[in-house]
Write a structure and sequence with these properties.
Elements (H helix, E strand, L loop, with lengths): L2 H17 L6 H14 L3 H12 L6 H14 L3 H15 L27 H17 L3 H10 L4 E4 L9 E4 L4 H13 L3 H14 L9 H6 L2 E7 L4 E4 L5 E5 L2 H4 L6 E4 L2 E3 L11 H6 L6 H5 L3 H17 L5 H17 L13 E7 L4 E8 L7 E9 L5 E6 L8 E2 L17
Parallel strand pairs: 3-11, 10-12
Antiparallel strand pairs: 1-2, 3-8, 4-5, 6-7, 6-9, 9-10
Helix pairs in contact: 1-15, 2-3, 3-4, 4-5, 4-6, 5-6, 6-7, 7-8, 8-9, 14-15
Length: about 425
């Protein structure tokens, strides 16, 4: 290849590769700031920043509503959490948006937009949190529907590169949703269905046998739902292709167990300190990844073409520059189509504990501590415990959200989003 060709080839490649990247928008910066506010425990500020973003019917409509649901739930703005999560739920479960019925939330999103719908584990958590919002309101029928939707069939992907890869369906191993589905059936008086789902949770996770005991859950009059840690993070290689999810459960270590104090006295949890799910583990399981994520590995082929073209050009001064350039540009185009979608729901926890307790009716101070995770504790004063039924309280465990907090929390300082129709 002539020296002139090489001189012109280098800047051309730099321009093409630069075109593969993107510029961060003001909306993206605001979303990042909202996530940062969330992780320093300023849930109200995070909610206020996300609310206007969640109304924009763009490619981040689902993602920003999921983020808003996280912030609003932690801020105990249940109206806003329900509304945001329901909008995300409707688009995720639609069949008219990116192959997804045209329900109320879905009708506002254009078919021409590549809408973020998340990895399967992220979609499962949208369904779970919406179900939790209903459960907290004692709307057990709608909660049941959401937890059932969190148990969608998983794909065991084949090895083909075709869009219609052969796969077989597998039952979900999302034990957390089976537990909450069983509790919904129990509250609705469907004891047989409750027992079936408790048994399914134990079949998947034998260590949850004491937590999934029907009698224990039937007696419970206060349920603590505790989010701990940070969920998996998408990581990319230097060329922007998806490299996987980090950290792995082995890198992060075992999930610490919670300790609960009621009115200053430690409560024996009798097996309720077991984590029903580890999202870090789910992210490593191909069944819990989207087909687009799995196919992102085709970037490796693009890298091979670029290397081959460059090697051909360097090997022989008489090398045909058209051939070399063709190989390199083909590789760049292939890599452009394989650039990873690194958007993700950053507020997800590593795990969600479900702790059913039976306390005397009245007001109680409740503290949750993680002795193995220094600085991770949260204290609430005056939680109401009913004489009949079950009250549910949500704890988002973060280093900068220790409290003490008083129940009931103050009214939200942002306008609640309208609550859409039930699923």
């Amino acid at each position: 290849m002539s020296r002139l060709t090489r001189v012109h080839l280098t800047p051309l490649l730099l321009v093409v590769m630069a075109g593969l990247g993107g510029c961060q928008t003001e909306a993206q910066r605001q979303a990042e700031q909202a996530v940062a506010s969330y992780y320093v425990g300023d849930f109200r500020q995070s909610e206020a920043m996300l609310a206007p973003l969640a109304r924009k019917t763009n490619e981040d409509f689902v993602l920003n509503n999921a983020r808003l649901g996280s912030a609003a739930l932690a801020a105990y703005d249940i109206d806003a959490a329900e509304g945001a999560l329901l909008d995300a739920y409707e688009v995720i479960n639609s069949v008219g948006v990116n192959n997804g019925g045209r329900t109320l939330g879905a009708t506002v999103v254009s078919e021409s937009i590549k809408v973020w719908k998340g990895e399967p584990f992220e979609r499962a958590m949208v369904n779970f949190y919406l179900g939790l919002a209903y459960y907290m309101r004692h709307d057990y029928n709608n909660a049941r529907a959401c937890f059932e939707n969190a148990l969608f069939k998983l794909r065991d992907y084949g090895k083909g590169d075709d869009k219609n890869d052969s796969y077989k369906e597998q039952e979900s191993d999302f034990a957390l949703a089976y537990l909450m589905l069983a509790k919904c059936h129990q509250r609705l008086g469907n004891d047989d269905a409750a027992a079936k789902n408790f048994q399914r949770a134990v079949a998947l996770r034998p260590d949850l046998a004491r937590l999934a005991d029907p009698e224990r859950n039937d007696r419970s009059n206060i349920l603590l739902v505790v989010d701990f840690g940070r969920g998996p993070e998408k990581v990319t290689s230097q060329d922007g292709a998806l490299a996987g999810f980090k950290p792995t459960p082995e890198e992060e270590g075992p999930i610490p167990m919670p300790v609960v104090f009621v009115d200053g006295q430690q409560v024996e949890l009798h097996g309720a300190d077991r984590a029903p799910v580890d999202l870090l583990g789910l992210a490593q399981d191909k069944r819990w990844e989207s087909i687009d994520t799995i196919r992102a590995v085709k970037s490796a082929l693009g890298t091979g073409l670029i290397v081959a073209g460059a090697a051909y050009a360097e090997a022989d001064e008489r090398a045909n520059p058209v051939v070399a350039l063709g190989l390199i540009l083909s590789g760049l185009l292939l890599k452009a189509s394989s650039q990873a979608d690194v958007r993700q729901w950053e507020m997800l926890p590593r795990t969600t504990f479900v702790i059913p307790l039976t306390l005397t009716a009245g007001k109680h101070d409740v503290t949750i501590d993680f002795p193995a995770a220094a600085g991770i504790r949260q204290e609430w004063h005056g939680l109401d415990v009913p004489g009949d039924g079950e009250a549910t309280y949500y704890f988002r465990m973060l280093r900068y959200a220790q409290g003490p907090y008083s129940w009931p929390p103050p009214p939200p300082n942002v306008s609640p989003m309208p609550v859409s129709k039930s699923p």
